[in-house]
Amino acid sequence: MENHKEEKRSLNFIEQIIEEDLREGFSSDKLKFRFPPEPNGYLHIGHAKAFCLNFGLGAKYNAPVNLRFDDTNPSKEEQEFVDAIKYDLDWMGLKWDEECYSSDYFQQLYDWALSMIKNGKAYVDSQSSEAMATQKGTPTVPGTDSPYRDRSVEENLDLFNRMKQGEFKEGEHILRAKIDMKHTNMLMRDPIMYRVMHKSHHRTGNDWCIYPMYDWTHGESDYLEQISHSLCSLEFKAHRELYDWFLDQVHDETKVRPKQREFSRLNLNYTVMSKRKLMQLVEDKIVNGWDDPRMPTISGLRRRGYTPASIHKFIDVAGVSKREQMIDVALLESCVRADLNKTTNRIMAVLNPLKLVLTNYPEGKTEIVMAENNPEDENAGHREMIFSREIYIERDDFLEQCPNKIFKLGIGKEVRLKHGYIINGVEAIKDADGNVIEVLCTYDEKSKSGSGTEESNRKVKGTVHWVSASHNVKAQVNAYDRLFTVESPDGEKEVDFKSHINPDSLTIIKDCIIELALKDAKPQERYQFQRIGYFCVDNDSTSENLIFNRTATLKDGWAKKPN
Q1: Residue 462: CB partners within 8 Å, gap ≥ 6?
Q2: What local confidence, expressed as pLDDT, does residue 451 receive?
Q3: Neighbouring residues of 312: CB distance < 8 A, sequence distance ≥ 6
C-alpha cells in the first residue's frame, strides 16, 4: 500500500486524470490512446513528447495505442512523410495497436455531415473568405450571421452534394456548422467543416474533392476508434469546446466518449519546431534535407548519433506539465552524452594532425599496445593498437614553449601517450613561414603503460591521444554546431527566423587520422573519440570514404572547432 501511495504522488497530471476516471467507474479495459500525426512533414523532438506520453500511458495501463494519420489536407501531405513517421516510431521502439487514417473515415464523416444538415446543424456558405473573416467578428466584437445561414435543408443538401461531385471551384462554397455567431469562443462561431479541394489524396486518389477540416475530423476519428483519452498540446485547449460539440452530434451513450485534455508542448531554445519553418529550411537548401543532423527531426537526431534511449530519457526528464516552458537544448545534449558515455567504445582520432618522430625508436619497428574499449562497461574488453616510430597527435596538444601549468607537449617537456609511452619534445621542425610541421621527440623505453616497470607508473602532467602514422585510416568529420545563433530564433514576428542561421553550424574537417580499428565502420555506429567527443558514422559513409558526424562534445557546451 505504501508503494502505491508513493506511485500516486509521482503521477503527472494526465495520469491523475486517468486515475480519477478509473476511481469513478471507468473500466480499465476501455482505456485506449492514440498518437495522431499529420503526414505533412517529419517528426521532430517536439512530437517526441506526444508519442512518448501516449505510448507510455499504453504501456503503464496495458492499453492499446493507435497510430492515426490525420490526413485531411492533400495539398501538404505525402506518402514519404507517412513512411518516415512509421520508421521513426519503430526506431524509437514503439509498437502501435492499429494503423489508422482519418481518410479511412471520409465516407462516415460525410454521412454524419449530411445528418447535421438535415437536423439544421450545418449549412453551405457561399461568401468569400474575406467576407467571412469580417462577419466573424473579433474576440471582443460578436460576429454576424452569414446571409446564407438560413438556406433550406433541401438547398444545403443539393449544394453539398454538388460540392462532392466537383461542380464548384475551390473557395466557391464551404460547409459550416451552425452553432452561434455571438459565442465568446470564436472557434464556435460557425466553424468550417468542409472545403472544396481539387487535389489528389495520397491514399484516396481522386475519389474526393471535398475534404473535412481538422476540428471536424479529429474528435470524430477518436470516437470511431473508441479512444478514451485524446491528449493534445495546449494550443488546442480552446478547441475542446468545439471538440465536445461535434461529439454531441454523433455520440451514442452506449459507446466510449473520448475526453480531450491538453498538455504543454515541448519548446527548445536555439531551435524552431514549426513544421512549416522546418520545411522552409529544407526547400531553401539551408540544410541538406529533413535528416540533416542540424535539424531537430527524429531522423536528423538519428543521423547525428542520438539514441532512442537518450530521447526517451530527455522526454522523461523534461516532464509533462500544463504550463508552457522553454527547455534548454543543453538538457537534450546532456542526455545523449550520458547514454553514449555508457554505451560507446573509445577510439583514437586526430582531427588536426601534427606528426611526431620518435628519434630513439627503431626504424621499421612496430608493436602492439592494448587499449580499453569502454571503462564504463566491464564486458567491452580491449583492442589492439599499433605503435610506431612516427605518430600523429592533435596540433593543439603541442606548444613549443610550454609553461609548466599547461599540460601539453613542449620542447623539453614530457607527456604520456595514452596507453603508450612517456615522450619528451626535442625539436620543432618548421616550414619557410615558421609553421611547425613536425616535432622530433624521444621516448622512455621503460615507461610503457601496463608493462609493470617502475617507469610505467611514473606520473607526468599531461596525457595525449595519438594514432600511428603508418597504420591508420583517413576520414572526414562533420562538426555540427547549433543551427541558430539566438535562443529564440522565431521569437520576433517582424524578423525572418532565417536571419539567425549560424554560419558555422557545419564545419567539414577533411583528412582526419583515425585508428585502424575503424576501417570497416558501418553507418550508425557510434564512438567516443577520446578527449574530443561522441561521433556517429554517417549514412553516406563507406569503407573508401569514411564520414563521421559529431553527436556531442564530452562536456556541456560546444568545444572550439579545429581550424
Answers
A1: 407, 408, 409, 413, 414, 415, 416
A2: 76
A3: 52, 92
Q: Which residue's C-alpha cell is 505533412?
A: 40
pLDDT for residue 6 = 39
- In terms of pTM, does the model score above 0.70? yes
Q: Residue 87 in contact with residue 96, Cβ under 8 Å?
A: no
- pLDDT of 10: 81
- What is the Cα Rg of the chain in Å? 31
DSSP state of 324: -
Nearest to 518 by CA among 346, 302, 397: 346
> Which residues on adjacent β-strands are paired with residue 211?
195
Q: Which of 220, 516, 488, 198 is nearest to 348 (CA)?
A: 516
Q: Could you tell me how many residues make up the chain?
A: 563
Arithmetic mean of pLDDT, 244-257: 97
Region 235-258: mean pLDDT is: 97
| C-alpha distance from residue 394 to each of 24, 94, 513 (Å) | 66, 42, 10
Q: Would you state the cell numbers that stand for residue 489, as one nine-digit string?
A: 530564433
Secondary structure (H, E, C), 391-450? EEEEHHHECCCCCCCCCCEEECEEEEECCCCEEEEEEEEECCCCCEEEEEEEECCCCCCC
User: What is the pLDDT averaged over residues 393-408?
Assistant: 95
In contact, 490 and 358? CB cutoff 8 Å = no
**pLDDT at position 320:** 94
* pLDDT on residue 456: 76
Q: pLDDT digit string (tens) for 404-425?
A: 899 999 999 999 999 999 999 9
- Cell digits of residue 59: 504501456
Give the phi and the psi of residue 454 in degrees, each rounded to 5: -60, -40
CA dist 403 and 378 (Å) reads 38
What is the enclosing helix (H) or strand (E) of 176? strand 174-177
Q: Which three cell numbers stand for residue 551?
A: 553527436
Q: What is the DSSP letter of 344?
A: P
With contact defined as beta carbons under 8 Å apart, do 455 and 447 qualify?
Answer: yes
Q: Determine how many CB atoms are found less than 10 A away from the CB of residue 47.
A: 24
For residues 272 and 399, give the distance between their C-alpha atoms in angstroms, rounded to a whole number. Answer: 41
E strands in 351-394: 353-358, 366-372, 382-388, 390-394
Determine how β-strand 99-101 pairs with β-strand 65-69: parallel
Name residues whose C-beta falls within 8 Å of residue 236's C-beta, 6 or more positions apart in sequence.
243, 260, 262
CA distances from 261 to 13, 175, 332 (A): 10, 27, 26
Neighbouring C-alpha atoms within 13 Å toward the C-beta of 386: 16
Sketch out the chain's domains with CATH numbers: 31-263 (3.40.50.620), 265-347+472-563 (2.40.240.10), 349-465 (2.40.240.10)
Catalytic positions, written as ranges: 38, 265, 275
